[in-house]
Design goal:
By secondary structure, the chain is mostly helical. The chain has 9 helices and no strands.
């Protein structure tokens, strides 16, 4: 009885270990193959520009709405705490740095995940189960170079720009609520930003954006490219890509922030 119990537990642990290590191994080999194609002709400029339009330009509305209301909520939520200590005028820099370093990169990436990562996984998954990817390979077209590389590069170019837009719009929303609704002195609000803000506050968010863009695009393309199981498999792959990408963003966010702190660039 006890032997069977420990045997069952051991079997489950070994299967999970094999699943995790095997998946990470296949993912790493897949990405190494894709990375080599970044520097191999043809460069598919038209496809890259198309992905920039789909991922970046078409996401402007959702980024605008999310950023504007998030900035306003940030001002409203912080006001009560700052008002207790009589330091409302310092809200400007506090909101600015929190948006640029943390909220902007993470929120913008999550919006892109919900909009673009799901679409990439579903599109590639559909092409895989309907054998369109196999057809490309039969026609001597490298399917990874044609389908995956443009999507990864398009994401890496688009997401940092979207993060800059998010930071700008969120700070505008926060400024409007702070000065016109919460009656904070506009000059003092802006002066704290001018006095304490540094260029690295922007660049840290952009660096995070590049890291996030690469991670979520590689996850989406890998999951979609390896879809099996017909229509049900496409739905499963889409859900898997969104969940894995979201979790990966938070893990990577902590790692990158810790590296900034370790190297004294915080």
């Amino acid at each position: 009885m006890i032997e069977n119990f420990f045997f069952s537990i051991g079997s489950i642990v070994l299967k999970m270990f094999d699943l995790i290590i095997g998946t990470l191994g296949r993912f790493s080999v897949f990405q190494l193959e894709v990375l080599r194609l970044f520097f191999k002709r043809p460069f598919r400029i038209k496809e890259i520009l198309s992905q920039i339009e789909i991922i970046g330009m078409n996401a402007f509305l959702v980024i605008f709405l999310t950023a504007f209301f998030m900035g306003m909520v940030e001002a409203v939520e912080l006001y009560s705490a700052f008002h207790k200590f009589g330091i409302e005028n310092y809200m400007g820099y506090t909101i600015f740095i929190s948006i640029c370093k943390e909220l902007g990169p993470v929120f913008a990436t999550l919006m892109v995940i919900s909009r673009s990562v799901s679409a990439i996984a579903a599109e590639l998954g559909t092409m895989k189960v309907t054998e369109q990817i196999d057809a490309l390979d039969v026609m001597a077209v490298n399917s990874k170079q044609y389908l995956i590389v443009p999507r990864i590069l398009g994401m890496i170019i688009s997401l940092p720009i979207l993060i800059l837009m998010f930071d700008t719009i969120a700070n505008i929303g926060s400024y409007l609520i702070s000065t016109y609704v919460l009656d904070i002195n506009a000059t003092s609000y802006l002066n704290t930003i001018k006095q304490y803000a540094e260029f690295k506050d922007f660049t840290q968010g952009i660096i995070k954006g590049v890291v996030f863009a690469y991670l979520i695009s590689t996850i989406a393309t890998y999951v979609g490219y390896n879809t099996t199981g017909g229509a049900k498999g496409v739905g499963r792959s889409t859900t898997t890509a969104v969940v894995l990408a979201s979790i990966t963003v938070f893990i990577a966010d902590y790692i990158v922030a810790s590296m900034f702190l370790f190297f004294g660039w915080n």
